[in-house]
Design brief:
Elements (H helix, E strand, L loop, with lengths): L2 E6 L7 H16 L3 E6 L5 H12 L5 H25 L4 E4 L1 H4 L1 E3 L8 E4 L2 H8 L3 E5 L2 E3 L5 E3 L5 H11 L4 E6 L20 E3 H9 L7 H10 L3 E5 L7 E4 L11 E17 L4 H11 L5 E9 L2 E9 L3 H15 L3 E14 L10 H10 L6 E5 L2 E7 L3 H11 L22 H4 L6 H8 L8 E19 L5 H11 L7 E3 L8 E8 L3 H15 L3 E16 L6 H12 L4 E6 L3 E7 L3 H11 L6
Parallel strand pairs: 1-2, 1-9, 2-6, 3-6, 9-11, 10-12
Antiparallel strand pairs: 4-5, 7-8, 11-12, 13-15, 13-16, 14-15, 16-18, 17-18, 17-20, 19-21, 19-22, 20-21, 22-24, 23-24
Helix pairs in contact: 1-3, 2-3, 6-8, 7-8, 9-10, 9-17, 11-12, 11-15, 15-16, 17-18
The protein binds aspartic acid (ASP) and magnesium ion.
C-alpha cells in the first residue's frame, strides 16, 4: 500500500478548527488507500512563546533545558491531532520523537538525526492507525530530549519519509508552493510546478524561507519526492525532485538578501595560507561566509572581500581584525548597507550568455554592481541596499520568470499525478542500500560524492576597470557575442583608485578569442591591464551537506595551504566548493584534497 507522509506547519495547526481540517485531510488520504504518517509542528507561534518565556527566567537558558521546554510545543499538537482524528471516527496514535525512536546526537538545540527505528511505526500503520509524529524532536543516547533547530519539523518529515521509503512527503503550509521569488516582494512571482533539490537548496540558503535547509539536503540524499502545498486548499503545489522544471531554461528563481554586510581585508600578502587564516577564524565563530572574492594582487598583495549576514557583522569584524593582524594586512574595511541579489538555475551550467543578461538588466536600471560571484548554478551580485528591490525586479523580468516555461504551454494543466518515488528512483542513488548504510552511523552525515580536477580552463583578468553601472554588462555581452563560454566570474570590490578588477574562466581553446575581445574592452574602458593564465586547474568538491557542515571549505583551504598551493579564485555553493589554482598544481592539489577528505568521501 502506498505510504504518504504529511507535514503540517505551525500555521496549519494554529487552532482547533485547523487541527480538525488537517485531520480530515489525513483521513481522506487514508481512505484513498494509503498509509499515512502525519508530522506536526507546534501550534501557531507557540515555539516563539516558549523561547520568550525561557528568556524571561534566564538570559542564557541551558540548551538541554531549552530542548526540554520547546519539545512540549509539538507534544501538545500531536495529542490534539490524535484526539481530532479519534473524534472523526478513525484510529490514530501520537508519538514523541523518543517514542518513535528518532535518535540524534547530543548537540542540544541543533541536533542531527542519527537513526530512526521503523518497527513500531510499521506495525501501527499495518494495523490501520494514522501515526501522528511530533516534529522537530528526538532523543540522544541517554534518552535526553533534543531538538533539530528552528523549523526542524520539515527535517523530521523528510527523514521519516526516507526511512519508511514513503511514496511522497507532503509539506502543508500557508503558502501554496515554491515561487520564482518571494511573492511578498514581487507580486509577479510565479508558482513553479517543479524545482530540483539543488536549486531549492540554493534558494533556501539565499533566504527564500519555504523549507528547512537540512530537510532538502536529506531529501536529496535519500531521493525523497517532496510536494509543497497549501493546507487551505487542494490545489497542486510544487514538487521538489531531482529534475528542474524546464530543461531549457537557464534560471528558475531569483532571491534577494537585504541584510548583508561586506568585509574587505586590504593588502593581504599573496601567498598560500592567507585565506585559511581568515576563514577558519570565521568558521570557528560559526559565521557563514558568502561571495568570496580575491582581487588579483599587485606588488604581491591582494584584497580579499566577502559577505556575511548583517547580524553577524560585529562578530565577524572582530575575528577578521585578529586574522588581519596575523597575516600583516594593511586594513579592514566594511559596508553594512549592501544587499545580495542572486539567480539560480541548473540550466545555466551549460549555457552561454546567461550572466550578461543579469548584468545588462542591472545596468539598464543604473544599478552599480559592487561584487560578483558565481557557482555552477548561481550568480550573485552585491548592490547598494536601496537598489535591492529594483534589482530583484529587473532580474526577475530579464529571465522572464513570471512566464511558464515554453515546454508546457500555459493553457495546458500541469501533468498529473506528480512524480512519486517509483518514477523518481531511476536516477537517484540506490535508496535501500543508502538508508541501511547510513542508519546508525549518522543519517545527516556529510556526504562528499566527488573531488574533481578540471584542467581545461584559462583565466582572464581585466585590471582597473571603472566602477560604474553597465560595465560588467558590456564585458560579458561582448564575450557572449563572441560565442565564448564563461564558467566562473568574480568581480572584486573597488580597490586602487576606486577601480575594480574582473576575472573569469573560459575554455583554454577559446583563450585567444577571449583575449582579443577583452583587449578591445580594456582599450575602450581605459583599463590598467589584461592579464591571463593559459592553464588553470579548477578543483571541486561536491556533496550534500556542504552548508550545514561548514568545515568543508576550511579543510580544502588547509589541505592546499599545507602543500603551499596558492588559490586564485574561490566559489562556494550549497553543493559544491570550487577553488582555482595555477595549472601545474592541479594534480598535486587533487591528491591533497582526496587525502584530506578521505573520511567523508563516499
Ligand atoms: N516548532 C518548531 C519551530 O517553530 C519546529 C517547526 O515548526 O518546524 O521552529
Ligand atoms: Mg515551520
Amino acid at each position: 500500500m502506498p505510504l504518504i507522509v504529511q507535514k503540517f506547519g505551525g500555521t496549519s495547526v494554529a487552532d482547533s478548527e485547523k487541527i480538525l481540517a488537517a485531520a480530515r485531510k489525513a483521513i481522506r488520504t487514508q481512505r484513498e488507500n494509503n498509509q499515512v504518517v502525519m508530522v506536526v509542528s507546534a501550534m501557531g507561534q507557540n515555539t516563539d512563546v516558549l523561547v520568550d518565556l525561557a528568556h524571561q527566567v534566564n538570559r542564557r537558558p541551558p540548551a538541554r533545558e531549552m530542548d526540554m521546554l520547546l519539545s512540549t510545543g509539538e507534544q501538545v499538537s500531536v495529542a490534539l491531532m490524535a484526539m481530532a482524528i479519534d473524534a472523526l471516527g478513525y484510529k490514530a496514535m501520537s508519538l514523541t520523537g523518543g517514542q518513535m525512536g528518532i535518535i540524534t546526537d547530543a548537540t542540544h538545540t541543533k541536533a542531527r538525526i542519527r537513526s530512526i527505528a521503523t518497527q513500531r511505526l510499521r506495525k501501527l500503520l499495518d494495523d490501520g492507525y494514522i501515526v501522528i509524529a511530533a516534529g522537530f524532536q528526538g532523543i540522544d543516547e541517554y534518552h535526553d530530549i533534543t531538538t533539530l533547530g528552528r523549523g526542524g519539523s520539515d527535517t523530521t518529515a523528510v527523514a521519516l519519509a526516507a526511512v519508511l521509503k514513503a511514496d511522497q512527503c507532503e509539506i502543508y503550509t500557508d503558502v501554496d508552493g515554491v515561487y520564482t521569488t518571494d511573492p511578498r516582494l514581487l507580486p509577479e512571482a510565479r508558482r513553479v510546478q517543479r524545482i530540483s533539490y539543488d536549486e531549492m537548496l540554493e534558494l533556501a540558503s539565499l533566504g527564500s524561507g519555504v523549507m528547512h535547509n537540512r530537510s532538502i539536503e536529506f531529501a536529496k540524499k535519500y531521493a525523497v519526492p517532496i510536494h509543497v502545498r497549501s493546507s487551505l486548499s487542494d490545489i497542486t503545489g510544487t514538487m521538489i525532485l531531482a529534475e528542474p522544471e524546464s530543461a531549457e531554461r537557464a534560471v528558475c528563481g531569483a532571491a534577494m538578501s537585504a541584510s548583508e554586510a561586506r568585509i574587505t581585508v586590504v593588502g593581504v600578502p599573496d601567498v598560500p595560507g592567507m585565506s585559511l587564516e581568515i576563514f577558519s577564524r570565521l568558521a570557528d565563530c560559526r559565521i557563514t561566509v558568502d561571495m568570496i572574492v580575491q582581487n588579483v594582487g599587485e606588488k604581491g598583495k591582494s584584497d580579499i572581500s566577502f559577505t556575511v549576514p548583517g547580524s553577524e557583522l560585529e562578530a565577524a569584524l572582530q575575528a577578521v581584525q585578529e586574522a588581519a593582524a596575523v597575516v600583516g594586512a594593511s586594513e579592514v574595511t566594511h559596508d553594512d548597507q549592501v544587499a545580495k541579489v542572486s539567480v539560480v538555475g541548473l540550466g545555466m551550467a551549460h549555457q552561454t550568455g546567461v550572466a550578461n543578461q543579469m548584468f545588462s538588466a542591472l545596468g539598464a536600471e543604473g544599478i552599480n554592481i559592487q561584487m560578483i560571484t558565481t557557482s555552477e548554478i548561481k550568480i550573485s551580485a552585491l548592490v547598494d541596499r536601496d537598489s535591492a528591490l529594483p534589482a530583484l525586479r529587473a532580474v526577475h523580468q530579464v529571465y522572464q520568470l513570471e512566464q511558464e516555461p515554453a515546454e508546457r504551454p500555459a493553457d495546458q494543466p500541469p501533468a498529473q499525478p506528480p512524480a512519486t518515488r517509483a518514477t523518481h528512483n531511476n536516477n537517484g542513488p540506490d535508496l535501500g542500500s543508502l538508508v541501511e548504510r547510513l542508519q546508525g552511523i549518522d543519517m545527516e552525515e556529510l556526504l562528499i560524492s566527488d573531488v574533481t580536477l578540471d584542467q581545461s580552463q584559462a583565466l582572464v583578468t581585466i585590471v582597473g576597470i571603472p566602477n560604474q553601472p553597465g560595465v560588467a554588462a558590456k564585458v560579458f555581452q561582448s564575450i557572449a557575442d563572441a560565442g565564448i563560454f564563461v564558467d566562473m566570474i568574480v568581480q572584486g570590490h573597488k580597490g586602487y583608485l576606486g577601480r575594480i578588477s574582473l576575472s573569469f574562466t573560459v575554455p583554454a581553446d577559446q583563450l585567444p578569442l577571449a583575449l582579443e575581445v577583452t583587449q578591445q574592452l580594456a582599450n575602450h574602458f581605459n583599463c590598467h591591464a589584461v592579464t591571463h593564465r593559459p592553464h588553470v586547474a579548477k578543483l571541486s568538491v561536491s556533496g550534500i551537506g556542504l552548508r550545514s557542515h561548514t568545515g568543508v571549505a576550511i579543510r580544502m583551504f588547509r589541505a592546499l595551504a599545507d602543500a603551499q598551493i596558492n588559490m586564485d579564485m574561490i566559489s562556494t555553493s550549497e553543493v559544491r566548493v570550487n577553488v582555482v589554482v595555477d595549472g601545474p598544481h592541479g594534480q598535486q592539489g587533487l591528491r591533497q584534497l582526496q587525502t584530506a577528505l578521505a573520511d567523508v568521501l563516499h
